[in-house]
Amino acid sequence: MRRLIALTIANLKSFTRDRAALFWTLAFPVVFVILFGTIFSGGGAAYELGWVDQDGSPTSIALRQAFAANAPVELTDGTLEESKARMLSGDVDGILVVPKGLQAVIDAAKAGQHPDPVEVTIVTDPSRSNTALALQQIATGLVMAANLRLSGATPLLSVLPDSLQTNQLNSVSYFVPSILAMALMQLGIFASIPLVQQREKLILKRLNATPLPRWVLVGSNVLVRLVIAAVQTVLILGIGIALLHVQILGDPLLIAGFVVLGALTFTSIGYVIASFARTEEAANGLTSVVQFPLMFLSGIFFPLEVLPSWLKSVATFMPLTYLGDALRQTMVGGTPFVPLAADFVVLAGWLLVTLGISARYFRWQ
Amino acid sequence: MLGRAREDAVIAVDDVRKAYGAVQAVDGVSFHVAKGEIFGLLGPNGAGKTTTMEMIEGLHAPDSGEIHVLGMDVRRSATAIKSRVGVQLQTAALYPQLTVTELIELFGSFFGRRPATERLLEDLELTEKRNARTKTLSGGQQQRLSVALALVNDPEVVFLDEPTTGLDPAARQGLWAVIRRMQREDRTILMTTHYMEEAEALCDRLAIMDHGKILDSGTVDDLIGRRFRERGVHFRRSGAPEKEKLEALPAVSRVVYEEDEVVLYTSDVPATIGGLLELTGRARTEPADLMVRRASLEDVFLDLTGRALRD
User: Fold this and answer.
1) Do A141 and A87 have their domain in common?
2) Which residues constitute the domain of residue A115?
3) DSSP codes joined into one string, B196-265
């Protein structure tokens, strides 16, 4: 046991003193999360709307308050010209114009007359169809509501927002567990490289010339991977929660369990790579060959539903599909691809099979 | 006699063979090393020295034959043997990011003991470098560190694989002193080398290996004396008398022309040189760069294999 601890500490020291390794395993996934988080949260949050009030009346101010309070928009006041300039330079997504005469029409209506309705204009960019549609709907909805209130009618129908979780997880919530899964995958399969290096440089042989049992050697390598996996998990989740406001819903023990299982499974795949790669270059090549299909065919960057069915069936063999699925389910309540128990069985199956292959083919020298 | 020697021997290797595919790397090697001896395996690269040594260390299993270390069978008691021996491999960089002290202590932990770090650092002149990362060490320092690591468990037997390869002459002398000190500390040492002068300077006995076989073994004097009773009288070839006259000189058995030297092999050096000087005196010249040499291990190797041992 003391030997296991001593070797693990030595391995961790070696790891933390190697700046390049540190960057790729710790900083890189973090950069990834921040990068993707920023890109995708831009689309998910509020719209910027230019607000042009040409009436300047109590009613137009009330309408503005209704917009600010009830819609996912941030309002920027200005004249029509100013707002158009802002929209052209991309500072606002659309412009809402409250025309002169709003108050007059309301007053007339209250006096029992039947004036022509006032037209509130919403200016959008048709080339950004999603944004345009959303802003038009927001504007229509709020104007209708204002209509009802102003005309004093009793609402007969209302919409009760209820939720049914589908795969429409917001992008950031989808990404954070996915990136954690990807980081664990890389951490595991990249275990092959130091292993092949140590064999090439005869370090494994040198250790084998001491009474150190092999299980201590393997155990220490696995422990190091688990410690790094824990650090990665804390970092990625920490950033997800603090910066990107991802809500972690699941049971921490269950999450930890899948993190450990994932790290073990992919480390075992790393040992398989090290069993067949004789040189460091071969290990690098083989690692990439394994890594890229895993990354792109495992629902890490996009849900599997968008893949053509034959690629989707490839994805059903990928262990990363199941780690990503399990982490999304346990962390953010993502739609199951398969039930959690099935994720567990597939990952554990990969672990056992790859352990068997390594036990058969791994060479110490 | 063989039976008795095996019981006394710290290392006993008997008819060991090892093939890698079609290559017979070790082909029926036998030798015994007594307690406190420095025993050398001498031969060119690829002779099978390292494979032989690594089988004794328990790193490879022999295809056939018996190996005993400290009276234990390597096949059955590898772990027990490993805890009592020290191994230095031709490995340059171990854990490049660890410091010298950390590495020594790490290796000590593998044996479940606290190594005498201070003493090892001092003995191997690494005290100044104790907190340096091992990747920053020079070749000689790394070599000394790998010897220090072979000593962390205060071993009874030390295996040194080409310990001075790649070192400059001063560093080589320094390491020789370390190896002699190990012997004074009553350790048994098995080393490989392809340097003749290293084998002559250090080894009590040695075995000359080529193509997986031991060609001959014994002390340096045995190996030379067994085949070269004569000495060589060397002098410059230009201006030397004709071959028939040289062959007629007293006690000369043969005359050999090397690149720019003539060598007269003789059983009586004074008689031969006297005759030679008389011969050249008559021609009013004298033999240039006159020198008398005993045969060397190089000559032994040449005699055994028909080729020179080069680095």
Assistant:
1) yes
2) 46-151
3) HHHHHHH-SEEEEEETTEEEEEE-HHHHHHTT--SEEEEEESTTPPPHHHHHTSTTEEEEEE-SSEEEEE
Q: What's the pLDDT score for residue A322? A: 92
Query: What CATH number has the domain bearing residue A93?
Result: 3.40.1710.10
What is the distance between the alpha carbons of residues A14 and A9, in angstroms, rounded to a whole number? Answer: 9
Structural domain contains residue A290: yes
A13 vs B96: CA distance, rounded Å: 11
Q: Which of B256, B232, B190 is nearest to B42 (CA)?
A: B190
Chain A residues lying within 8 Å of B90, measured CB to CB: 202
Q: Do A13 and B98 touch (CB under 8 A)?
A: yes
CB A96 within 8 A of CB A49: yes
C-alpha triplet A138, A142, A145: angle, nearest 5° = 145
Task: Mark yes or no for CB contact A3/B91 under 8 Å.
Answer: no
Beta carbons of B89 and A207 less than 8 Å apart: no
Q: How far does Cα B186 stand from its chain's mean position? A: 19
Give per-residue burial for B283-302: e unless 16+ CB within 10 Å, then b.
Answer: eeeebeeeeeeebbbebbbe
**Is residue A19 less than 8 Å (CB to CB) from chain B?**
no
Give the mean pLDDT of chain B.
Answer: 89
Token pair for residue B48? 């099978």
Contact B203, B175 (CB under 8 A): no
Q: Do B112 and A3 touch (CB under 8 A)?
A: yes
- Tokens 């919530």 sit on residue: A173
CB contact under 8 A, B110 and A211: yes
Q: What is the distance in angstroms between the Cα of A337 and the nearest Cα belonging to chain B?
A: 43
- As a whole number of angstroms, the distance between CA B190 and CA B118 comes to 25
What pLDDT band is residue B203 in, cutting at 50, 70 and 90? very high
Walk me through the domains of chain B, giving residue ranges and CATH numbers: 2-225 (3.40.50.300), 231-294 (3.30.70)
Query: Which whole number is the average pLDDT over A298-302?
Result: 79
- To the nearest whole Å, the CA of A19 is away from the closest chain B CA by 11
Taking CA atoms, what residue in B is nearest to A8?
B106
Complex prediction ipTM: 0.78
Extract the tokens encoding A341. 């128990």
Please say whether the beta carbons of B11 and B69 come within 8 A. yes
Are A220 and A277 in the same domain? yes
pTM of the model: 0.73
